[in-house]
Design goal:
- It is a single chain.
- By secondary structure, the chain is an alpha/beta fold.
- Helices cover 40% and strands 19% of the residues.
- It has 24 helices and 25 strands.
- Strands 13, 14, 15, 16, 17, 18, 19, 21 and 24 form a nine-stranded mixed beta sheet that branches. Strands 5-4-3-6-7 form a five-stranded parallel beta sheet, covered by helices on one side.
- A hairpin with a 3-residue loop joins strand 15 and strand 16 (362-374).
- Residues 1-30 form the signal peptide.
- It comes from Desulfobacula phenolica.
- Keywords: Signal.
C-alpha cells in the first residue's frame, strides 16, 4: 500500500493539464463581482453568475441564448418558444401579461423586464431577487444591452462577437448604398396598428433601422414606440415603401382600399412587404441582418445591378463532412458571396458520372456534382429580379462547376440546418440530405389556391449504395413525398393559406432529387419494397430534424406556438367579448385576457384546447359528425374553471373565420373565466382556478 501511494505522487501530466484547466476556469469565474447599469440607469452589483433567471423581454432572452448562457435561464415568455434550446424552459405567460404567481413560485435570483412591467418591479424591488430593466431605444443601446448581458453572464467575448457582426453588416449596407451614388432615397414607413394606422415614433429604434437601411423615415413630430398617423399625415408623407410583420396585414386590409390611404405610391405600386415579427420589433442580435434584408427590398433594382456589387463571387470557406457511400468523392458546405451576401451551398461530388432525376430539372445524365443552394433573404428580391437562370449561373460560377455536369436545388432554408439521415437494412443503405422551412408558404394540396409565393422550401436529395433503375428512381420520389407529408402531418404543420382548418402536405416550392447510385440493381422503391421503406424512414426523420433546426418547432411544441401558427390571438378574441357581464370590481378585457392566458399555462386546460384542435380538424374533414359529447366536455371545463356548475356555454367568440369546434372550446374557457371573475372578483394571476389533480405539474 505504501508503494502504491508513492506511485500516485509521481509526476502525472494528465493531472497537471487538469489543474491548469481548473485554474483557467476559476480565473474566468473570478471575474465577479461586476458592476452594471440597466436601461433606467440603475446600478447593480453582481457577485456571481445568476443561475435562475426569468426573462420577460424577448430581445433580452434572444441575446442570452446567443451568447451561450441559456442554461442560466429558468423561465421565458411564450414569444421565445422557438429559440434554439428553449424547449425545457418554463413559460410564464406573454410579454404584456406574465403570471406573477408563477414568477414568485420560481424564486428567481434575477428578473429581466421592461419599464412596462411596473407591477412586477414593485413586487420584487425590495427582495433578494435582482431587477434588471431592459429597454431598447436605439441601435447603439442594443449594442450596450448585449455588452451588459455579456458582462452579467461572463460571456463578454461572445457578446463582443455579436456586436462586431452586427456592425460589420450595417457597414456593409452603408458601403452598398454609397456605391449607388445616383440613389434617390425612398420614403419608407413601418406599418402598425389594427383599427387605426400607426407607426413608430421619431425616437424609436425602428425609425433608426429605416435610416440605416437607406430609407427616409417619417417625422410626424411624435415620440414613442408607437404613434397614430392621420390620413393627412399619411398622404403628405406619401410612402414609397411600406413594411410590417404578420399582424400588421389587418391594418392593410382595412385601410388600403379606402380613399386617401390607398392613394400613395407604395400602395399603388404594390411596394408592401412583411417580415418576421421577431426581426421588425426587436433591436437585438439580428439587427444588421434585418437592415440588410430591408435595404435589399427598398432598393431591389439597384442591388441587382452587377456594377453595384462590392464583393467578388468566390468561395470564402468550406466545411467538409462524410457521406458513407463508395461513389461519393467529397461532400461539403461551401460559403460564398453571391449578390454581395454570404450564400451557403451543399456540394456532393461523385467519383464517376451519375444519372439523376430532379423535380426541378427532370432527368439528367453524366452528372458529376449535385447539391442544394441556400440564398439568404437579402438576395431574394435581387435574385428574383434577375431570374432563375442568372441565379443558377451565379451558383455554378461560385462553386467552379459546369452546367452540363452539375445539378443544384435551391432553397431559402439555411444550409447550416441541413439534416443528414442514414437508414440501413443488411447490405442496403439509404442517405437523405434534407433542408426544410415551413413557416411561410406551407400548403395543403387539393385544398389551397396557389396564388402567392413566399420563400420556404423542403428539399430532399436521396442517395443509396445500390443502382436504382429509372422506374425505381421515379418511384423513390413518391416514397419520399409521402414520407415528407407524413412528417408534416405528425408535427401538425399548418397551411399558410388556411391554417385554421388545414394541416400542410408540403410547401409550394418543394423539390426532390434522386441519384441513381452504384451497385446491385434495384427495380422497385415503392411502399412494398425494403428500398422504399428505407427511403421513407430517412426522409421522414430528415424532414422532422430539418424543421426543428430551421424553424425550432417539434410535434410537442407549446400550445401558444400552435395558436400562433393558426393565427389565433387570445387578446384579439377577448377584445371582441362583451365584458359588460363582468361586475365593476372585476376589471377589463385585459383582465380577462390575463385570466385566459394564465389558464392556458396549466396542463389540463392546454391539453383541452390541444384536443379541441385535433377534433376540429377531423370535424372539418367530415370524419367527426356529432359534437354532443365534446360540448358536454366543454361545459365540464367551464365549470372546472368557474368553480361551480355551468349549465350553458355562452357565445363570446365573434370571429366567423374560427371553426365551430374551436369556437365552442374558447367559448367554454371564456364562460368559465368570466363566471369566476363575477363570482369573487378573484385575482386573475392565481393559478388554481378550477382545482385539478394536475395543478402542481
Amino acid at each position: 500500500m505504501l508503494i502504491q501511494n508513492k506511485k500516485r505522487l509521481k509526476f502525472n501530466p494528465f493531472l497537471l493539464i487538469s489543474a491548469l484547466l481548473f485554474i483557467i476556469c476559476t480565473t474566468s469565474v473570478a471575474a465577479y463581482p461586476v458592476s452594471v447599469t440597466d436601461s433606467k440607469g440603475n446600478h447593480l452589483k453582481i457577485f456571481k453568475t445568476p443561475h435562475k433567471v426569468i426573462s420577460l423581454v424577448p430581445s433580452a432572452t434572444q441575446i442570452i441564448f446567443e451568447i451561450g448562457a441559456k442554461e442560466h435561464i429558468h423561465a421565458i415568455t411564450y414569444h421565445d418558444i422557438t429559440l434554439a434550446g428553449a424547449f425545457d424552459k418554463q413559460i410564464i405567460g406573454g410579454f404584456f401579461l406574465p403570471s406573477i404567481d408563477k414568477i414568485k413560485t420560481a424564486k428567481p435570483d434575477m428578473i429581466i423586464l421592461s419599464t412596462l412591467h411596473q407591477d412586477i418591479i414593485e413586487k420584487f424591488q425590495n427582495t433578494e431577487c435582482k431587477i434588471f430593466i431592459f429597454d431598447t431605444t436605439t441601435i447603439e443601446s442594443a449594442y450596450k444591452n448585449i455588452e451588459v448581458l455579456g458582462k452579467i453572464f461572463n460571456r463578454e467575448q461572445a457578446a463582443q462577437k455579436i456586436i462586431k457582426k452586427n456592425k460589420a453588416e450595417l457597414n456593409h449596407i452603408k458601403q452598398k448604398l454609397a456605391k449607388i451614388n445616383h440613389l434617390k432615397h425612398k420614403r419608407v414607413i413601418r406599418l402598425m396598428g389594427k383599427n387605426t394606422i400607426m407607426t413608430p415614433g421619431t425616437d424609436s429604434f425602428q425609425t433608426r433601422i429605416i435610416r440605416a437601411a437607406g430609407g427616409i423615415a417619417p417625422d410626424f413630430g411624435k415620440k414613442g414606440s408607437i404613434v397614430s398617423v392621420t390620413k393627412q399625415e399619411w398622404i403628405k408623407f406619401n410612402p414609397q415603401v411600406i413594411y410590417g410583420c404578420g399582424p400588421d396585414k389587418e391594418a392593410a386590409k382595412k385601410f388600403f382600399s379606402k380613399p386617401g390611404w390607398k392613394d400613395v405610391d407604395a400602395v399603388k405600386k404594390g411596394q408592401i412587404y412583411y417580415f418576421p415579427c421577431d426581426l421588425t420589433c426587436r433591436a437585438s442580435t439580428h439587427t444588421g441582418y434585418f437592415v440588410s434584408w430591408l435595404s435589399s427590398m427598398i432598393y431591389t433594382d439597384e442591388f441587382a445591378k452587377a456594377k453595384n456589387t462590392i464583393l467578388p463571387i468566390t468561395i470564402t470557406r468550406s466545411k467538409p463532412f462524410e457521406i458513407d457511400l463508395d461513389y461519393i468523392k467529397s461532400a461539403s458546405i461551401n460559403y460564398s458571396h453571391i449578390y454581395d451576401f454570404e450564400n451557403k451551398t451543399l456540394v456532393v461530388d461523385f467519383q464517376k458520372d451519375q444519372t439523376i432525376i430532379s423535380t426541378l430539372e427532370g432527368q439528367r445524365d453524366h452528372i458529376l456534382t449535385v447539391g442544394n443552394h441556400y440564398s439568404p433573404p437579402p438576395t431574394w428580391a435581387p435574385g428574383h429580379h434577375l431570374g432563375i437562370e442568372h441565379i443558377r449561373s451565379s451558383i455554378l460560377k461560385a462553386m467552379g462547376k459546369n452546367q452540363q455536369t452539375a445539378s443544384f436545388l435551391m432553397t431559402g432554408a439555411d444550409m447550416d440546418n441541413l439534416s443528414v439521415k442514414t437508414k440501413v437494412f443488411k447490405e442496403m443503405k439509404v442517405v437523405a440530405l434534407v433542408t426544410a422551412g415551413v413557416m411561410s408558404n406551407a400548403v395543403r394540396m387539393s385544398k389551397d389556391t396557389g396564388d402567392f409565393y413566399e420563400p420556404g422550401t423542403i428539399n430532399v436529395i436521396i442517395m443509396t449504395n445500390m443502382r436504382l433503375s429509372t422506374r425505381a428512381m421515379t418511384r423513390a420520389i413518391i416514397a419520399g413525398t409521402e414520407a415528407k407529408t407524413a412528417a408534416l402531418e405528425d408535427m401538425d404543420i399548418r397551411s399558410s393559406y388556411t391554417p385554421l382548418i388545414n394541416a400542410a402536405t408540403g410547401t409550394g416550392t418543394d423539390n426532390i432529387m434522386v441519384v441513381q447510385g452504384e451497385g446491385q440493381l434495384v427495380e422497385n422503391a415503392g411502399g412494398h419494397s425494403k428500398m422504399g421503406e428505407l427511403i421513407a424512414k430517412a426522409v421522414y426523420d430528415g424532414v422532422s430534424e430539418a424543421i426543428l433546426k430551421q424553424n425550432k418547432i417539434t410535434a410537442d411544441r407549446h400550445l401558444f406556438q400552435r395558436l400562433k401558427e393558426r393565427k389565433i390571438s387570445i387578446f384579439q378574441l377577448v377584445s371582441n367579448v362583451n365584458c359588460d357581464c363582468i361586475n365593476n370590481t372585476s376589471g377589463t378585457p385585459n383582465r380577462l385576457a390575463q385570466v385566459v392566458e394564465h389558464l392556458l399555462l396549466e396542463p389540463q386546460y392546454a391539453s383541452f384546447l390541444e384536443s379541441a384542435m385535433a377534433i376540429s380538424d377531423e370535424y372539418e374533414k367530415g370524419l367527426v359528425k356529432d359534437l354532443f359529447f365534446f360540448q358536454k366536455w366543454c361545459r365540464t371545463i367551464a365549470g372546472d374553471i368557474a368553480g361551480k356548475n355551468i349549465e350553458e356555454i355562452k357565445i363570446h367568440v365573434m370571429d366567423d373565420h374560427i371553426p365551430v369546434t374551436l369556437k365552442t372550446a374558447f367559448d367554454a374557457i371564456f364562460t368559465g373565466a368570466l363566471a369566476k371573475l363575477n363570482t369573487d372578483g378573484s385575482n386573475p394571476d392565481k393559478s388554481n382556478q378550477g382545482k385539478s389533480t394536475h395543478e402542481n405539474n
